[in-house]
Amino acid sequence: MKLSTDRGGYPSSLEIKVYLRRADINTVQPAFVIRYEPAEGMRREPHNIKDDVEKYKLYVDDKEIPCYYY
Fold first, then answer.
1. Considering only CA atoms, which of 55, 35, 32, 61 is closest in space to residue 43?
2. Is the pLDDT of residue 2 over 70?
3. Tens digit of pLDDT for each residue in 26-55?
4. Which domain of life is it from (predicted)?
C-alpha cells in the first residue's frame, strides 16, 4: 500500500482490513481490523497522522492498543 501526499497532505485516519489469504478479500469477513484515528473528542478538529501523532489511538478489533511515542 502506498499513501500519497500529493492529494492534500497526510490522511486524518487509517482503517486496515486484514485477510488471511488474498482470495478472501471481499468474499469473507476480515481476520481483524486495525484502526488509527483521533481519540474521542478530537475527531471534529482537523488532524493528520504525521503531525498530530499524540492525539491518535490505535485499535485492533475495537480494542485499544497502547502506543508509545518517542
1. 55
2. no
3. 899 999 999 999 887 776 778 888 888 888
4. Bacteria
Please report, for residues 15, 31, 32, the alpha-carbon distance to residue 26 in angstroms, rounded to integers and kept in the order given: 15, 12, 13
d(CA 8, CA 11) in angstroms, rounded, equals 8
Q: Are 35 and 18 in contact (CB under 8 A)?
A: no
Identify residue 68 by its one-letter amino acid code.
Answer: Y
pLDDT at 57 (0 to 100): 92
The letter for the amino acid at 55 is K
Find all residues with CB under 8 Å of 28, minimum gap 6, and list them: 19
Q: Which amino acid is at 66?
A: P
Q: Which of 6, 9, 2, 16 is nearest to 47 (CA)?
A: 9
